[in-house]
Description:
elongated
Amino acid sequence: MLQYGGMKSSANKTRKFSHERTRNLVIFAVLTAIIILMAFTPVGYLRVGVIEITFLMIPVIIGAAVLGPLGGLGLGFVFGLTSFLQCFGISAGGTMMFNMAPLLTTLTCLLPRILFGLVSAYLYKFFKKLIKVPVLPEALTMILSAVLHTIMFVLLFYVCFKNEEFLQQYGDTFFAIVWAMVGINAIVEWAVCGVFGTAILKTLDYFISQYDKKRATSQVDEETPDGEQVPPPEAPSD
């Protein structure tokens, strides 16, 4: 009897793991499609002259929060890859960077985005565990992740291209160059992530939890039909 119960419990855990994996793969695929769609349509970038404001951080942070570190890494890579592809005639700044230093441009496009996806997942775990106020963990994750993305990208960009002449036109100090390049557009990115990203993440998290609850309830109903009672354990014989 105990062996049967253990086998049944093991089968339930296997089914639950399979269900969660399938669900996560579907979410990852949908978010990947959204990133690609946004990257190559006006939805993902707001371009005003040489200034570029990107909203691709939103699906990456959402995916990192929902799927965990591996999901964050994967979506961060997709974000970085689409950013790299912008260097082939789509983005004026990216094309100029690639023509000057292809390898450094590839590194600048990919590395900060991959690390950003990973960090976003751990930030959400940390805030979710530490803060019990509704919505606040999601808001802090979205805003702080967006800020860290900007910092990581700009620092690596500056290290890789600080000796290039085109960068000197923005100023003669690091902070002057950073403000000239990211000032207003970075603030807009953070605000959009904080408002829209938080709303989307909270909504998606709610629907996932409700779906999992319904799935767990239906599974119990399937395993225990109406009127069926689990027999008590047999008493030991004298």
